[in-house]
Design brief:
41% of the residues lie in helices and 17% in strands. The chain is α/β, with parallel strands linked by helices. The longest helix is centred in the C-terminal third of the chain and has 16 residues.
Length: 290
């Protein structure tokens, strides 16, 4: 099968199947071989790797993955793309196609079934509208991961790798950095896709921490505190936590925690590092038990 990184081949196969792009699935297919090579390089795919690809589309990136990996499992939500994938991937015997919604399947049990519960590399050109839920689902459900390399909206990639004090820094930065080390491998302009999206994209590589960077007494409390402090960015941390539905600390408890940790009472969430959030969370967790 001819490479789908060539726009002419992509147009040909879409016409053959009278394929209509579905806005609800956020479909933007890659049409640039250089970008495909960058993704495979950034993901560091070898013949030992089992790759889970989310949203293969017509199989553009899948072809590249099959060339480099031991085995590829491609999960595609749009059933109209399944016959196309069967044709574009017909030359490869190391790929399985699953017609499922990645947010509704049990990824852990899929990996158990297809890869004997060994770590997988996730590679994807993700639809923008489900980027955050997919990333968080992969980490929170403790999927055995050896790496995650995804093409996402540039603005979201910037938010993921942002540091305290910057305008992009927020709950997403902290949540992802708790689980993994982010690195932007490439920026990708809109003209590398069909149809052309309105915004730029980026390939980001997330390397999971072998062990969590900090000891956390209560992970769900930590994430609630993070959400609370960015829920209304203009508020101080004290007011953010105090007013957040789902948390029931008194102002005295919160101020006591900040004083004990030598953190100013008027600080905002955007100024705090992950380590500081962990320390506040561990301090406040004792009030929950009492």
């Amino acid at each position: 099968m001819a490479s789908l990184g060539n726009p002419k081949n992509t147009i040909e196969i879409l016409n053959k199947y009278s394929f209509v792009f579905q806005k609800k699935f956020g479909q933007n297919f890659l049409i640039d071989n250089h970008v495909l090579e960058k993704i495979v390089r950034a993901a560091d795919i070898t013949k030992d790797d089992f790759v889970l690809e989310i949203g293969p589309g017509i199989g553009t990136l899948t072809q590249y993955l099959c060339e480099h990996a031991r085995k590829v499992l491609a999960v595609e939500i749009d059933k109209k793309l399944i016959p196309i994938l069967e044709e574009t991937l017909a030359d490869y015997d190391n790929v399985s196609i699953l017609n499922e919604d990645i947010l509704k399947v049990d990824i852990v049990s899929i990996i158990k079934e297809y890869n004997d519960n060994k770590p997988v590399k996730v590679v994807a050109n993700l639809p923008y509208y489900i980027t955050t839920p997919i990333i968080m689902d992969l980490f929170e459900s403790h999927v055995p991961l050896s790496g995650v390399t995804i093409m996402i909206q540039k603005e979201v990639a910037d938010r993921i790798k942002a540091l305290p004090g910057s305008k992009d820094y927020g709950a997403l930065s902290l949540a992802v950095q708790y689980y993994a080390k982010p690195h932007i491998a490439a920026n990708v302009p809109p003209n590398c896709f069909m149809p052309r999206p309105k915004v730029g994209s980026a390939v980001i590589n997330l390397t999971p921490h072998e062990n969590p960077p900090y000891h956390v007494e209560n992970v769900s409390l930590l994430f609630s505190l993070i959400r609370a402090s960015f829920n209304q960015r203009r508020k101080t941390l004290v007011n953010g936590i105090y007013n957040y539905e789902g948390l029931s600390f008194s102002k005295e408890d919160i101020i006591d925690a900040l004083d004990s940790l030598e953190i100013p009472n008027d600080i905002r969430g955007e100024a705090l590092s992950l380590e500081q959030f962990v320390r506040i969370s561990n301090y406040l967790s004792k009030y929950i038990h009492s």
